[in-house]
Every structure is written in C-alpha cells, then in structure tokens.
C-alpha cells in the first residue's frame, strides 16, 4: 500500500509538496469505515 | 518529410520542457515576493510598536502546519530526545508548508491565483529584479503562458 | 515547412536557455534572501496569521519546526491516519497554536 515520505525542515522547496498527501488523506473513507463497523475494536495504535 | 517529422517531435519536446520550467520559475517568483513582503510587514510592525513581538508568540520559518477538526483525537508518542514523533489521528488532517501559508496570508499579492490588483502588481514588480518584471506582469493575468517573453 | 520548423526549434532553444538562466538566478536570490541574518530574524508569522489560513478557523492547528532533512512519513489512511517524523540533526519542535 502507498505511504508518502517527504523531507521537511528547509525553507521553500517545490511548490505544494503536500498536495499528494492531502489528496491521499482526504480521499480515504477510513474514518467513515471505522464509524460504520463501530463494533470492531480499533486496531492498537502503533507505538514508537 | 522525415526530417520535418523529427523537427516536429523536437519542437514538442522543447515546448513541454519550457512549460515545466515556466511553472518552476513562477513558483520561485512567488516565493521571493511572499518572503520579502512578510519581512517588510514584520519590519513595519516592529517599527510602529518600537519593539519585537514576545518570542513565544512568533513562529519562525521554516515550519509546517497540520490542521484537523477540533473533534479529532490525536495520540502522540515522542522519543526521549525529541528526534522522533508518531501521531495517530482518528480523523482526517491537512498538511501545509510555510510558503503555502504565506500565499494564503496574501503575501504573494494574489499572483498565485492570477488575481492581482494594479496596486498589488506595482508592489510585486518592485519586489523582484528587473529581468523578472515581465513574468510578474504575465502572472498577474493568469499563469506565465507566453513562450517568448521579451525580457528587460 | 522545414525552414520554418528549423527556425522555431532554434528560437525555442534560446527561450529555454533564458529560462534556465533566470531559474538559477532566482534560486540563488531566494537562498541569499532567506539566509540573510536580518531577514531570518524578521521571517516569522504570528499564531493569528496561521488561524487566518485554515477554514474553519476553529480547527486544531499543530505547528512543526524541524531541522533540515527531517523525514516525514504519512501512512496510507487504510491503516489509519498516521504521521511519523524522524530527525537526524536535532530535536523536533511541535506545538499547538492557541485558539485565541
């Protein structure tokens, strides 16, 4: 599955490098899915 | 006919590259104008108030912002040395970098959307070197599209 | 037709060279601009500036200030909305923008 890696910490770079990330996040219906199958306990959050 | 065909392909290729480079130059011009305008604004405010703002109320560049709904639950894990963070959200979020924030603050004089008033255009042209002025004028009416912009 | 194509391709070549020159000059100007100590000091925004750029304004706004080359990874939302930050050149600063 896709995951997006970007480098941050520098001033000004390529224009709108977060556009792809925002599109990926907003296009998903993960929160909707979770609200539907409310019964299933949410997956344990990954820890550092 | 074959040589015309080859030249046609080469012409198309150069037009594509010029289009990509024009949008790269456009972004650089926007960043230059936005940063200069931000510095100008802060300098004016500090001169009016005769002092710099409290240190904990300013956010220096570079930065990024992550914004999400107020209802979102954010689970955050941090390593002891603060070199690593892990955030888990239970809702969508958006990420924007500093230049995107400056554009939304109006620091790019509306050039990023091709809507620039005559006064703003005058300010924007004054913030770039002479060689870039024709590009700023083009950007004020939309994006740079003319392939042969006569430089100054 | 061959002659006119030849002329147009050569003109495009010149236009492209001019663009290359302007891009490298603009990159240099931007670098000098952002590295100037005086500009570094004045290159800041206020919390209310950030608030004015999000819609609706009463959202949670988290600010991340990281050293150069910090890696940010955003996982595929099907695994959950997750962002990880990993720095190799210093601590990362994260704080929430106050609402008022």
Order of helices and strands of chain B: HEEEEEHHH
Q: Number of helical runs of chain C?
A: 3
Mean pLDDT of chain C: 93
The greatest interface here is: B-C, 70 and 63 residues
Give start-end ranges of low-pLDDT stretches of chain C: none
Strand content of chain B: 15-25%
> Could you give the order of strands across the largest sheet of chain C?
2-5
How much beta of chain C, percentage-wise? 15-25%
Please state the overall shape of chain B, judged from the principal axes of the Cα atoms.
Answer: flat
Sheet/helix structural class of chain C: alpha+beta
- The separation of the N and C termini of chain B measures 38 Å
What form of chain C results from the Cα inertia axes?
elongated
Characterise this structure.
The complex is a heterotrimer of chains A (48), B (152) and C (100). Chain A has two helices and one strand; from the N terminus they run E-H-H. Chain A has helices at 19-27, 30-36; one strand spanning 4-8. Chain A is elongated. Chain B is an alpha+beta fold. Chain B has helices at 2-49, 98-104, 118-126, 133-140, and strands at residues 58-60, 64-68, 74-78, 84-89, 93-97. The mean pLDDT of chain B is 92. In chain C, 45% of the residues lie in helices and 24% in strands. The mean pLDDT of chain C is 93. With 100 residues, chain C is an alpha+beta fold. In chain C, strands 2-5 form a two-stranded antiparallel ribbon. Classes of the chains: A alpha+beta (48), B alpha+beta (152), C alpha+beta (100). Chains in contact: A-B, A-C, B-C.
